[in-house]
Fold this sequence. Notes:
Elements: H1 2-8, H2 12-16, H3 25-28, H4 38-51, H5 59-70, H6 74-80, H7 89-104, H8 125-133, H9 136-176
Helix pairs in contact: 4-5, 4-6, 4-9, 5-6, 7-9
Amino acid sequence: MRHHLRHRLPSPSRVLDTPGLRWLRPWLDHPALWGLQRRRVAMGFAVGLFSGLMPGPTQMLTAGVLALLLRVNLPVALLTTLYTNPFTYLPLYYLAYRYGCLLLGQDTGSTMSLSSLSQPGHWRVHEVLAWLEGLGWPLLVGVLALGLTLALAGYALVAVSWRCAVGRAWRKRKESRGADGTYPAE
Length: 186
């Protein structure tokens, strides 16, 4: 797993030598932010899942700040926020709203419905903003709760997947050895 990630993620020196990011070197030049250990990567994935539900322009900023504070893998945290996009944002926020209503014990039928925005080609900015304003507390609670739920599930998924990959590599290595524990001569 580590080998797979090492070839896909940018190197710290490459990122830190980027002209626009040089001023961040004192904060970003910490080995923990670039480490490819199971817990750091899993926690970076969780941070990215949580941060991905934050309002649009704050997603990567939130992921970066949380990664710095928690000392988890920064590139994984930033890249994971990309699961939200224009196609997934509204369905995720609607799910978060329903989740918030469930947690707060509110009836979802008493507030605005998604059907008023069923024709995306006819949306106007003020209509979308009015719709979001009407959602209020259930949406806020739901976004935080869904973010935490996704983060916990994502952490568990990465940690278990990583552990399974390591176990598979150990079994494969053990099977390639002879009965006496040494590698066969070729």
